[in-house]
Amino acid sequence: MALTNAPEVKLAIVGVSRDCFPIALTRQRMGRLVQACEAVGQQVFACPTIIENEKDTVQALAEAAAAGANAAVIYLGNFGPEGPLAIFAQRFPGPVMAIAAAEESKDTLMGGRGDAYCGMLNASYNFGLRKLPVYIPQMPVGLPDALAAKVKYFAVLARVVIGLQNLRVIGFGPRPQDFFACNAPIKPLYDLGVEVTENSELDLLSLFQAVDANDPAVAATVADMEAELGKGNTYPDLLVKLARFETALMRVYEEGRGSRQFAVFADKCWPAFESFFGFVPCYVNSRLSSRGIPVACEVDIYGAVSEYLCALASDVPATLLDINNTVPDDLISGDLKGAMPADLFMGFHCGNTPSCCMKNCSLKYQLIMHRLMEAPNEPDITRGTLEGQLRPGPTTFFRLQGNADSQLVSYVAQGEILDIDPHSFGGIGVFAIPDFARFYRHVLIGKRFPHHGAVAFATCGEVLYDALTLLGVTDINTPLPAGALYPGENPFVMNGGVLVKG
Fold it and tell me: Exposure check for the chain: N or C terminus, fewer CB within 10 A?
Protein backbone atom coordinates (compact mmCIF):
# COMPACT_ATOMS: atom_id res chain seq x y z
CA MET A 1 0.00 0.00 0.00
CA ALA A 2 1.29 3.47 -0.89
CA LEU A 3 2.35 5.78 1.92
CA THR A 4 -0.21 8.59 1.88
CA ASN A 5 1.25 10.41 4.88
CA ALA A 6 4.57 11.35 3.29
CA PRO A 7 5.94 14.45 1.56
CA GLU A 8 6.57 14.67 -2.15
CA VAL A 9 10.08 15.99 -2.66
CA LYS A 10 10.45 18.59 -5.40
CA LEU A 11 14.13 19.09 -5.98
CA ALA A 12 15.78 22.22 -7.40
CA ILE A 13 19.40 22.43 -8.56
CA VAL A 14 21.12 25.79 -8.63
CA GLY A 15 24.49 26.24 -10.29
CA VAL A 16 27.05 28.68 -8.90
CA SER A 17 30.03 30.33 -10.59
CA ARG A 18 32.77 32.61 -9.31
CA ASP A 19 32.97 35.72 -11.47
CA CYS A 20 36.61 35.14 -12.41
CA PHE A 21 35.68 31.75 -13.92
CA PRO A 22 33.64 31.34 -17.11
CA ILE A 23 29.94 31.05 -16.24
CA ALA A 24 29.53 28.86 -19.32
CA LEU A 25 31.55 26.17 -17.55
CA THR A 26 28.96 25.87 -14.76
CA ARG A 27 26.07 26.08 -17.22
CA GLN A 28 27.44 23.26 -19.37
CA ARG A 29 28.34 21.06 -16.43
CA MET A 30 24.94 21.59 -14.78
CA GLY A 31 23.20 20.63 -18.00
CA ARG A 32 25.04 17.31 -18.02
CA LEU A 33 24.23 16.77 -14.33
CA VAL A 34 20.51 17.35 -14.92
CA GLN A 35 20.59 14.81 -17.77
CA ALA A 36 22.34 12.29 -15.53
CA CYS A 37 19.72 12.81 -12.81
CA GLU A 38 16.90 12.19 -15.26
CA ALA A 39 18.68 9.06 -16.48
CA VAL A 40 18.52 7.57 -12.97
CA GLY A 41 14.86 8.54 -12.57
CA GLN A 42 15.34 11.63 -10.43
CA GLN A 43 13.35 14.63 -11.65
CA VAL A 44 14.91 18.00 -10.88
CA PHE A 45 14.19 21.66 -11.60
CA ALA A 46 17.25 23.51 -12.89
CA CYS A 47 17.16 27.14 -11.78
CA PRO A 48 17.79 29.29 -14.89
CA THR A 49 19.89 31.75 -12.89
CA ILE A 50 23.50 30.81 -12.19
CA ILE A 51 24.58 32.42 -8.92
CA GLU A 52 27.57 34.76 -9.24
CA ASN A 53 26.50 37.38 -6.68
CA GLU A 54 23.86 38.06 -4.03
CA LYS A 55 21.34 39.52 -6.51
CA ASP A 56 21.57 36.24 -8.39
CA THR A 57 20.91 34.44 -5.10
CA VAL A 58 17.64 36.33 -4.63
CA GLN A 59 16.60 35.55 -8.20
CA ALA A 60 17.46 31.85 -7.90
CA LEU A 61 15.49 31.60 -4.65
CA ALA A 62 12.47 33.10 -6.39
CA GLU A 63 12.80 30.63 -9.27
CA ALA A 64 13.01 27.68 -6.90
CA ALA A 65 9.98 28.91 -4.96
CA ALA A 66 7.95 29.40 -8.16
CA ALA A 67 8.75 25.80 -9.13
CA GLY A 68 7.45 24.56 -5.76
CA ALA A 69 10.85 23.20 -4.71
CA ASN A 70 11.10 22.05 -1.10
CA ALA A 71 14.68 20.71 -1.31
CA ALA A 72 17.70 22.10 -3.14
CA VAL A 73 21.11 21.12 -4.43
CA ILE A 74 23.86 23.73 -4.72
CA TYR A 75 26.17 22.70 -7.54
CA LEU A 76 29.65 24.21 -7.80
CA GLY A 77 30.31 24.03 -11.52
CA ASN A 78 33.51 25.89 -10.76
CA PHE A 79 35.08 27.45 -7.67
CA GLY A 80 31.82 29.26 -6.81
CA PRO A 81 31.13 32.44 -4.80
CA GLU A 82 31.08 31.12 -1.25
CA GLY A 83 29.13 34.04 0.28
CA PRO A 84 26.20 34.09 -2.16
CA LEU A 85 25.87 30.31 -2.25
CA ALA A 86 25.84 30.17 1.56
CA ILE A 87 23.10 32.83 1.62
CA PHE A 88 21.05 30.66 -0.75
CA ALA A 89 21.35 27.77 1.71
CA GLN A 90 20.48 30.07 4.60
CA ARG A 91 17.30 31.41 2.99
CA PHE A 92 16.05 28.30 1.24
CA PRO A 93 13.10 26.87 3.25
CA GLY A 94 14.06 23.21 3.11
CA PRO A 95 16.95 20.73 3.17
CA VAL A 96 20.01 21.73 1.14
CA MET A 97 22.81 19.63 -0.33
CA ALA A 98 26.12 20.86 -1.75
CA ILE A 99 28.15 19.05 -4.42
CA ALA A 100 30.82 20.07 -6.92
CA ALA A 101 32.12 19.22 -10.37
CA ALA A 102 35.24 17.15 -10.97
CA GLU A 103 37.54 17.92 -13.91
CA GLU A 104 36.68 15.89 -17.01
CA SER A 105 39.86 15.57 -19.04
CA LYS A 106 43.50 16.51 -19.25
CA ASP A 107 42.59 18.39 -22.41
CA THR A 108 40.49 20.92 -20.44
CA LEU A 109 42.90 21.75 -17.64
CA MET A 110 44.05 25.00 -19.20
CA GLY A 111 40.95 26.84 -20.40
CA GLY A 112 38.27 24.75 -18.73
CA ARG A 113 39.54 23.95 -15.25
CA GLY A 114 36.88 24.68 -12.62
CA ASP A 115 38.71 24.25 -9.30
CA ALA A 116 35.47 23.23 -7.56
CA TYR A 117 37.49 20.80 -5.43
CA CYS A 118 39.00 23.90 -3.86
CA GLY A 119 35.74 25.83 -3.83
CA MET A 120 33.97 23.18 -1.72
CA LEU A 121 36.37 23.95 1.13
CA ASN A 122 35.42 27.61 1.19
CA ALA A 123 31.74 26.77 0.76
CA SER A 124 31.89 24.50 3.80
CA TYR A 125 33.59 27.22 5.83
CA ASN A 126 30.83 29.69 4.93
CA PHE A 127 28.12 27.20 5.86
CA GLY A 128 29.86 26.93 9.22
CA LEU A 129 29.96 30.72 9.71
CA ARG A 130 26.18 30.75 9.38
CA LYS A 131 25.67 27.49 11.32
CA LEU A 132 23.83 25.93 8.38
CA PRO A 133 23.04 22.18 8.40
CA VAL A 134 23.91 21.58 4.75
CA TYR A 135 24.22 17.96 3.64
CA ILE A 136 27.60 17.25 2.05
CA PRO A 137 28.02 13.60 0.95
CA GLN A 138 31.08 11.47 1.58
CA MET A 139 32.51 12.14 -1.90
CA PRO A 140 31.01 15.54 -2.82
CA VAL A 141 33.12 16.19 -5.93
CA GLY A 142 32.52 14.07 -9.00
CA LEU A 143 31.41 13.63 -12.58
CA PRO A 144 27.70 13.80 -13.48
CA ASP A 145 26.92 10.07 -13.33
CA ALA A 146 28.43 9.70 -9.85
CA LEU A 147 26.77 12.87 -8.58
CA ALA A 148 23.36 11.91 -9.96
CA ALA A 149 23.25 8.87 -7.67
CA LYS A 150 24.02 11.15 -4.71
CA VAL A 151 21.28 13.59 -5.73
CA LYS A 152 18.78 10.73 -5.88
CA TYR A 153 19.88 9.62 -2.41
CA PHE A 154 19.48 13.17 -1.14
CA ALA A 155 15.86 13.20 -2.32
CA VAL A 156 15.16 10.29 0.07
CA LEU A 157 17.06 12.03 2.85
CA ALA A 158 15.08 15.22 2.22
CA ARG A 159 11.80 13.29 2.44
CA VAL A 160 12.70 12.18 5.98
CA VAL A 161 13.67 15.70 7.09
CA ILE A 162 10.68 17.43 5.46
CA GLY A 163 8.29 14.85 6.89
CA LEU A 164 9.59 15.28 10.42
CA GLN A 165 9.59 19.07 10.28
CA ASN A 166 5.96 19.08 9.13
CA LEU A 167 4.71 16.47 11.59
CA ARG A 168 2.13 16.51 14.37
CA VAL A 169 1.96 13.75 16.98
CA ILE A 170 -1.62 13.25 18.20
CA GLY A 171 -1.70 11.50 21.55
CA PHE A 172 -4.68 10.00 23.35
CA GLY A 173 -4.47 9.11 27.01
CA PRO A 174 -1.90 9.70 29.74
CA ARG A 175 1.46 8.12 29.20
CA PRO A 176 1.28 4.95 31.29
CA GLN A 177 2.61 4.65 34.83
CA ASP A 178 3.97 1.14 34.26
CA PHE A 179 6.01 2.19 31.21
CA PHE A 180 8.12 5.10 32.35
CA ALA A 181 10.15 4.75 29.16
CA CYS A 182 7.10 6.12 27.33
CA ASN A 183 7.13 9.17 29.60
CA ALA A 184 10.12 10.75 27.87
CA PRO A 185 10.32 14.57 27.85
CA ILE A 186 8.84 15.97 24.65
CA LYS A 187 10.68 19.30 24.62
CA PRO A 188 13.35 17.93 22.19
CA LEU A 189 10.62 17.19 19.64
CA TYR A 190 9.68 20.87 19.57
CA ASP A 191 13.34 21.63 18.96
CA LEU A 192 13.09 19.48 15.81
CA GLY A 193 9.97 21.31 14.66
CA VAL A 194 7.47 18.59 15.61
CA GLU A 195 4.11 19.61 17.11
CA VAL A 196 2.51 17.48 19.83
CA THR A 197 -1.19 17.44 20.74
CA GLU A 198 -2.09 15.44 23.84
CA ASN A 199 -5.72 14.46 24.48
CA SER A 200 -7.67 12.45 27.01
CA GLU A 201 -8.59 8.81 26.50
CA LEU A 202 -12.17 10.02 27.03
CA ASP A 203 -11.80 12.25 23.96
CA LEU A 204 -10.98 9.17 21.92
CA LEU A 205 -13.95 7.28 23.36
CA SER A 206 -16.26 10.18 22.52
CA LEU A 207 -14.95 10.30 18.93
CA PHE A 208 -15.48 6.55 18.57
CA GLN A 209 -19.02 6.68 19.94
CA ALA A 210 -19.90 9.47 17.49
CA VAL A 211 -19.32 7.13 14.51
CA ASP A 212 -22.57 5.38 13.61
CA ALA A 213 -22.37 1.71 12.69
CA ASN A 214 -24.46 2.49 9.59
CA ASP A 215 -22.07 5.16 8.35
CA PRO A 216 -21.09 4.38 4.71
CA ALA A 217 -17.42 4.86 5.66
CA VAL A 218 -17.78 2.02 8.17
CA ALA A 219 -19.25 -0.34 5.58
CA ALA A 220 -16.43 0.47 3.16
CA THR A 221 -13.83 -0.15 5.85
CA VAL A 222 -15.41 -3.49 6.82
CA ALA A 223 -15.27 -4.61 3.18
CA ASP A 224 -11.62 -3.60 2.96
CA MET A 225 -10.83 -5.48 6.18
CA GLU A 226 -12.54 -8.60 4.87
CA ALA A 227 -10.51 -8.44 1.66
CA GLU A 228 -7.27 -7.95 3.58
CA LEU A 229 -7.82 -10.69 6.14
CA GLY A 230 -9.20 -13.37 3.83
CA LYS A 231 -9.06 -16.69 5.68
CA GLY A 232 -7.56 -14.86 8.66
CA ASN A 233 -10.91 -13.18 9.38
CA THR A 234 -11.56 -15.23 12.50
CA TYR A 235 -13.89 -12.71 14.17
CA PRO A 236 -16.23 -11.32 11.48
CA ASP A 237 -18.62 -10.06 14.17
CA LEU A 238 -15.90 -7.73 15.46
CA LEU A 239 -15.21 -5.90 12.21
CA VAL A 240 -17.93 -3.25 12.54
CA LYS A 241 -16.52 -2.10 15.90
CA LEU A 242 -12.99 -2.04 14.50
CA ALA A 243 -14.16 -0.16 11.41
CA ARG A 244 -15.92 2.47 13.54
CA PHE A 245 -12.68 2.97 15.45
CA GLU A 246 -10.64 3.26 12.26
CA THR A 247 -13.12 5.75 10.83
CA ALA A 248 -12.84 7.85 14.00
CA LEU A 249 -9.03 7.86 13.87
CA MET A 250 -8.95 8.77 10.19
CA ARG A 251 -11.29 11.70 10.84
CA VAL A 252 -8.99 12.88 13.59
CA TYR A 253 -6.10 12.53 11.15
CA GLU A 254 -7.87 14.62 8.51
CA GLU A 255 -9.13 17.30 10.87
CA GLY A 256 -6.50 17.35 13.60
CA ARG A 257 -3.29 18.13 11.70
CA GLY A 258 -3.86 21.86 11.98
CA SER A 259 -0.92 23.70 10.45
CA ARG A 260 0.90 20.43 9.77
CA GLN A 261 0.84 18.33 6.61
CA PHE A 262 1.45 14.97 8.30
CA ALA A 263 0.43 13.25 11.52
CA VAL A 264 1.06 10.14 13.59
CA PHE A 265 -0.69 8.79 16.68
CA ALA A 266 0.43 7.66 20.12
CA ASP A 267 -2.57 6.07 21.83
CA LYS A 268 -3.43 4.47 25.15
CA CYS A 269 -4.29 0.86 24.38
CA TRP A 270 -4.75 -0.86 27.78
CA PRO A 271 -5.94 -1.74 30.38
CA ALA A 272 -9.04 0.52 30.55
CA PHE A 273 -9.36 0.72 26.76
CA GLU A 274 -10.76 -2.79 26.35
CA SER A 275 -13.48 -2.37 29.00
CA PHE A 276 -14.92 0.75 27.36
CA PHE A 277 -14.29 0.16 23.66
CA GLY A 278 -14.89 -3.59 23.68
CA PHE A 279 -11.80 -4.66 21.69
CA VAL A 280 -8.04 -4.14 21.40
CA PRO A 281 -6.97 -1.55 18.79
CA CYS A 282 -3.98 -3.44 17.38
CA TYR A 283 -5.39 -4.45 13.99
CA VAL A 284 -6.67 -0.94 13.31
CA ASN A 285 -3.27 0.43 14.31
CA SER A 286 -1.66 -1.92 11.80
CA ARG A 287 -3.93 -0.69 9.02
CA LEU A 288 -3.08 2.96 9.59
CA SER A 289 0.61 2.09 9.77
CA SER A 290 0.30 0.41 6.37
CA ARG A 291 -0.52 3.88 4.94
CA GLY A 292 2.44 5.53 6.67
CA ILE A 293 0.35 6.78 9.61
CA PRO A 294 1.91 4.97 12.59
CA VAL A 295 -0.21 4.47 15.71
CA ALA A 296 2.22 3.75 18.53
CA CYS A 297 1.14 1.63 21.48
CA GLU A 298 1.21 2.76 25.10
CA VAL A 299 1.26 6.48 24.16
CA ASP A 300 4.85 6.10 22.97
CA ILE A 301 5.30 9.50 21.32
CA TYR A 302 8.93 8.92 20.36
CA GLY A 303 8.02 5.46 19.12
CA ALA A 304 5.47 6.94 16.72
CA VAL A 305 8.03 9.45 15.43
CA SER A 306 10.67 6.73 15.07
CA GLU A 307 8.29 4.47 13.16
CA TYR A 308 7.36 7.36 10.87
CA LEU A 309 11.02 8.07 10.10
CA CYS A 310 11.55 4.39 9.25
CA ALA A 311 8.63 4.50 6.81
CA LEU A 312 9.94 7.65 5.14
CA ALA A 313 13.49 6.31 4.91
CA SER A 314 12.47 2.94 3.44
CA ASP A 315 9.33 4.01 1.52
CA VAL A 316 7.51 0.95 2.90
CA PRO A 317 5.31 0.59 6.00
CA ALA A 318 7.12 0.11 9.30
CA THR A 319 6.16 -1.16 12.74
CA LEU A 320 6.93 -0.73 16.44
CA LEU A 321 8.12 -3.76 18.43
CA ASP A 322 9.41 -4.68 21.85
CA ILE A 323 12.99 -5.91 21.97
CA ASN A 324 11.32 -8.74 23.73
CA ASN A 325 12.93 -12.09 24.47
CA THR A 326 15.91 -14.30 23.80
CA VAL A 327 15.85 -17.15 21.30
CA PRO A 328 16.14 -20.69 22.74
CA ASP A 329 19.03 -22.76 21.41
CA ASP A 330 16.68 -25.44 20.09
CA LEU A 331 14.98 -22.85 17.84
CA ILE A 332 18.15 -21.59 16.16
CA SER A 333 18.87 -22.96 12.72
CA GLY A 334 20.07 -21.97 9.27
CA ASP A 335 22.07 -18.96 8.12
CA LEU A 336 22.30 -16.33 10.87
CA LYS A 337 23.33 -13.62 8.37
CA GLY A 338 26.58 -12.73 10.12
CA ALA A 339 25.14 -12.73 13.63
CA MET A 340 26.11 -15.04 16.48
CA PRO A 341 23.49 -16.98 18.50
CA ALA A 342 23.89 -14.48 21.36
CA ASP A 343 23.02 -11.66 18.96
CA LEU A 344 19.56 -13.06 18.20
CA PHE A 345 16.39 -11.79 19.82
CA MET A 346 12.68 -11.78 19.17
CA GLY A 347 10.88 -8.59 18.26
CA PHE A 348 7.26 -8.73 19.43
CA HIS A 349 4.12 -6.70 19.85
CA CYS A 350 0.52 -7.65 20.41
CA GLY A 351 -0.53 -7.30 16.78
CA ASN A 352 0.14 -3.85 15.31
CA THR A 353 2.37 -4.81 12.35
CA PRO A 354 0.85 -4.22 8.87
CA SER A 355 -0.25 -7.38 7.09
CA CYS A 356 2.04 -6.54 4.15
CA CYS A 357 4.99 -6.91 6.55
CA MET A 358 3.91 -10.35 7.78
CA LYS A 359 4.69 -13.78 6.39
CA ASN A 360 1.35 -14.99 7.68
CA CYS A 361 -1.30 -13.39 9.88
CA SER A 362 -4.84 -13.61 11.20
CA LEU A 363 -7.15 -11.78 13.57
CA LYS A 364 -6.72 -13.10 17.11
CA TYR A 365 -6.98 -12.04 20.76
CA GLN A 366 -4.35 -10.60 23.08
CA LEU A 367 -3.25 -13.51 25.26
CA ILE A 368 -1.66 -11.46 28.07
CA MET A 369 -4.63 -9.11 28.38
CA HIS A 370 -7.02 -12.08 28.27
CA ARG A 371 -5.24 -13.57 31.28
CA LEU A 372 -5.60 -10.25 33.09
CA MET A 373 -9.16 -9.34 32.14
CA GLU A 374 -11.23 -12.31 30.97
CA ALA A 375 -9.79 -15.68 31.98
CA PRO A 376 -11.17 -18.30 32.24
CA ASN A 377 -13.93 -17.02 29.93
CA GLU A 378 -13.74 -17.00 26.13
CA PRO A 379 -12.03 -13.93 24.60
CA ASP A 380 -14.33 -11.00 23.92
CA ILE A 381 -13.02 -7.54 24.73
CA THR A 382 -9.41 -8.66 24.20
CA ARG A 383 -9.99 -9.59 20.56
CA GLY A 384 -8.52 -7.52 17.71
CA THR A 385 -4.83 -8.32 17.34
CA LEU A 386 -3.16 -9.14 14.02
CA GLU A 387 -0.86 -12.03 14.83
CA GLY A 388 1.68 -14.10 12.94
CA GLN A 389 5.29 -14.35 11.84
CA LEU A 390 7.07 -11.26 10.56
CA ARG A 391 8.16 -11.27 6.93
CA PRO A 392 11.79 -12.47 6.58
CA GLY A 393 14.30 -10.15 4.97
CA PRO A 394 16.50 -7.12 5.55
CA THR A 395 15.60 -4.88 8.48
CA THR A 396 16.69 -1.75 10.30
CA PHE A 397 16.00 -1.39 14.02
CA PHE A 398 15.84 2.27 15.04
CA ARG A 399 14.94 4.62 17.86
CA LEU A 400 14.96 8.39 18.33
CA GLN A 401 14.51 9.24 22.00
CA GLY A 402 14.45 12.17 24.38
CA ASN A 403 16.47 10.96 27.34
CA ALA A 404 16.03 11.78 31.02
CA ASP A 405 18.16 14.89 30.56
CA SER A 406 15.87 16.10 27.75
CA GLN A 407 18.53 15.49 25.11
CA LEU A 408 18.02 13.65 21.83
CA VAL A 409 19.74 10.28 21.50
CA SER A 410 19.34 7.60 18.88
CA TYR A 411 20.46 4.21 17.65
CA VAL A 412 20.48 2.55 14.24
CA ALA A 413 21.17 -1.16 13.73
CA GLN A 414 20.83 -3.20 10.54
CA GLY A 415 20.36 -6.92 10.13
CA GLU A 416 17.87 -9.58 9.04
CA ILE A 417 14.55 -10.98 10.14
CA LEU A 418 15.13 -14.72 9.90
CA ASP A 419 12.70 -17.21 8.40
CA ILE A 420 12.28 -19.10 11.66
CA ASP A 421 8.91 -19.98 13.18
CA PRO A 422 8.93 -18.12 16.54
CA HIS A 423 6.60 -20.71 18.16
CA SER A 424 4.92 -17.91 20.09
CA PHE A 425 2.03 -15.43 19.96
CA GLY A 426 1.59 -11.86 18.77
CA GLY A 427 3.22 -10.22 15.78
CA ILE A 428 6.66 -11.66 16.23
CA GLY A 429 9.90 -12.55 14.48
CA VAL A 430 13.50 -13.61 15.07
CA PHE A 431 16.00 -10.80 14.49
CA ALA A 432 19.66 -11.37 13.65
CA ILE A 433 21.73 -8.19 14.01
CA PRO A 434 25.50 -8.71 13.94
CA ASP A 435 27.25 -7.65 17.17
CA PHE A 436 23.91 -6.99 18.87
CA ALA A 437 24.72 -8.71 22.18
CA ARG A 438 27.33 -6.13 23.21
CA PHE A 439 25.26 -3.34 21.64
CA TYR A 440 22.31 -4.40 23.81
CA ARG A 441 24.40 -4.13 26.97
CA HIS A 442 26.48 -1.03 26.29
CA VAL A 443 24.05 1.09 24.26
CA LEU A 444 20.46 -0.03 24.84
CA ILE A 445 20.96 -0.74 28.55
CA GLY A 446 24.00 1.50 29.06
CA LYS A 447 22.31 4.59 27.59
CA ARG A 448 18.89 3.65 28.99
CA PHE A 449 16.87 3.26 25.81
CA PRO A 450 13.30 1.92 26.23
CA HIS A 451 12.02 -1.48 25.18
CA HIS A 452 10.22 -0.19 22.07
CA GLY A 453 12.07 0.03 18.77
CA ALA A 454 10.89 1.06 15.33
CA VAL A 455 11.38 -1.54 12.60
CA ALA A 456 11.90 -0.83 8.92
CA PHE A 457 11.45 -3.76 6.55
CA ALA A 458 14.43 -2.66 4.47
CA THR A 459 18.02 -1.58 4.88
CA CYS A 460 17.88 2.18 5.46
CA GLY A 461 20.42 2.88 8.20
CA GLU A 462 22.43 5.19 5.97
CA VAL A 463 19.46 7.48 5.32
CA LEU A 464 18.38 7.52 8.97
CA TYR A 465 21.90 8.29 10.17
CA ASP A 466 22.36 11.15 7.68
CA ALA A 467 18.88 12.53 8.39
CA LEU A 468 19.51 12.64 12.13
CA THR A 469 22.87 14.32 11.54
CA LEU A 470 21.23 16.92 9.30
CA LEU A 471 18.63 17.52 12.02
CA GLY A 472 21.35 18.17 14.58
CA VAL A 473 21.26 14.90 16.54
CA THR A 474 24.83 14.14 17.61
CA ASP A 475 24.43 11.07 19.85
CA ILE A 476 23.73 8.36 17.23
CA ASN A 477 24.74 4.84 18.23
CA THR A 478 25.47 1.83 16.02
CA PRO A 479 26.74 -1.70 16.79
CA LEU A 480 30.53 -1.93 17.04
CA PRO A 481 32.46 -4.98 15.83
CA ALA A 482 34.60 -7.13 18.09
CA GLY A 483 37.77 -5.30 19.08
CA ALA A 484 36.14 -1.84 19.03
CA LEU A 485 35.17 -0.91 22.59
CA TYR A 486 32.12 1.07 23.64
CA PRO A 487 32.73 3.96 26.08
CA GLY A 488 33.02 2.42 29.52
CA GLU A 489 33.30 -1.16 28.24
CA ASN A 490 35.72 -3.21 30.32
CA PRO A 491 38.62 -4.16 28.02
CA PHE A 492 39.53 -7.13 30.23
CA VAL A 493 36.22 -8.93 29.73
CA MET A 494 35.53 -11.08 26.72
CA ASN A 495 32.15 -12.09 25.31
CA GLY A 496 30.37 -14.29 27.81
CA GLY A 497 32.03 -12.57 30.76
CA VAL A 498 35.24 -14.60 30.65
CA LEU A 499 38.19 -12.65 31.97
CA VAL A 500 41.17 -12.35 29.65
CA LYS A 501 44.12 -14.18 31.17
CA GLY A 502 47.40 -12.34 31.43
Answer: C
